[in-house]
């Protein structure tokens, strides 16, 4: 049986579009892609692991869902995800800092980014341990500073040290008021 979707994603389901195009980036076995497709979104699942993508396709077919899969090395030179291509992008437990400009560019105006990954504190209790895969304190908010942050947290949640954000790409309005209104939880 596959793992359920991340709680950070499901807890913010009311913010997701009811239709449109969604991207599950570094999807693994597709737990988020499958959940998004079951909600009626047109989902693209991207990962470099072709066996995991085969599992996504097989599971989607069994459940009567349509998911487009793409085998793609996200850490290759000049990785592109398209421009203004997605209404929602989900990234869970994956970090490649140089990919952030492509992620933000791939969001349509008004599009939602749901992102959660490990912080440096995670290395003290488990994997990952490499600083390349662990966020510094406050780093995720800096990486998505062009978005209107709707919710964010950083600390020990669900047995892991993570940073999480839900942000919306602006539709051209001034972010000054939005930045002042955002809610951020930091658990030291």
Structure description:
The chain is α/β, with parallel strands linked by helices and 188 residues long. It has a single domain, classed as Vaccinia Virus protein VP39 (Rossmann fold, 3-Layer(aba) Sandwich). Helix content is 23%, strand content 30%. The chain has helices at 7-10, 31-38, 50-62, 100-106, 139-143, 176-181, and strands spanning 21-25, 42-47, 67-71, 86-92, 107-118, 148-157, 160-168, 184-186. It has an 8-stranded mixed beta sheet with strand order 3-2-1-4-5-7-6-8. The protein is globular and about 40 Å long.
Features:
188 residues, alpha/beta, Rossmann fold, 30% strand, disordered C terminus
Topology at a glance:
Blueprint: H1 7-10, E1 21-25, H2 31-38, E2 42-47, H3 50-62, E3 67-71, E4 86-92, H4 100-106, E5 107-118, H5 139-143, E6 148-157, E7 160-168, H6 176-181, E8 184-186
Parallel strand pairs: 1-2, 1-4, 2-3, 4-5, 6-8
Antiparallel strand pairs: 5-7, 6-7
Concise description?
The protein contains six helices and eight strands; from the N terminus they run αβαβαββαβαββαβ. With 188 residues, it is α/β, with parallel strands linked by helices.
Mean pLDDT: 90
Distance between the termini: 34 Å
Unreliable residue stretches = 174-188
Tell me the radius of gyration. Answer: 16 Å
Total number of beta strands: 8
Strand order of the largest sheet: 3-2-1-4-5-7-6-8
Q: Portion of residues in helices? A: 10-25%
CATH architecture: 3-Layer(aba) Sandwich
In sequence order, what are the helices and strands, one letter per element?
Answer: HEHEHEEHEHEEHE
Domains (count): 1
Secondary-structure content class: alpha/beta
Name of the CATH first level: Alpha Beta
CATH superfamily: Vaccinia Virus protein VP39
The total count of helices amounts to 6
Q: Characterize the biggest β-sheet.
A: 8 strands, mixed
Give the CA-based shape: globular
CATH topology: Rossmann fold
